[in-house]
Write the structure tokens for this entry.
Amino acid sequence: MQGKTRPPVTAGEAISRMDQYVALGLIGQQEVAQLLGLNVTDLTCLGHVLGAGDEPLSAGDLASLANLTTGAVTGVLNRLERAGYAKRQPDPDDRRRVRVVADPVATRRVVEVYEPFYARLAALFDEYSPEEVAVIADWFARAAVEARAHLDHLRSGEPDRSGPADPTDPAAPGALEPPMIKFPFSCPTEGSA
């Protein structure tokens, strides 16, 4: 599939659209978690466990991926085990560590919930060229690094000084339009791309 010409957008408009998608995703995750009898944190951790596939995560790996403390992950694993979604297994290389594996029956249940949505996304990606898909994938990977860095700053209590001194200053590199700063999760203004 060849990409098609699209109207230009500003970084602020793209971020506004991302905010809308993220906000909808948060609501969707809450709905899926409720459907599966989990909370959102446990569902997120289960997603990491499922994503690990044949290379089970250690509890420490899961804590790092989910940006949780090891104590919090212990609670998550207890709840996932009680709900029948995952279990701990001793690490064959280090008996002091445990690996987390998903229950196959529970995995099928989770896949049944997400599969229709992922099919929709796959059809959407088919409308983009391989080069465009590569750019989208690259952006998400790099944005995840930035999100993790920002979360680390928030948790540390230290100000995040990596951005412009005044994000509303249009002359500042990487500045966002003021409406984005004032109204996250807002729709782009009428007539914008």
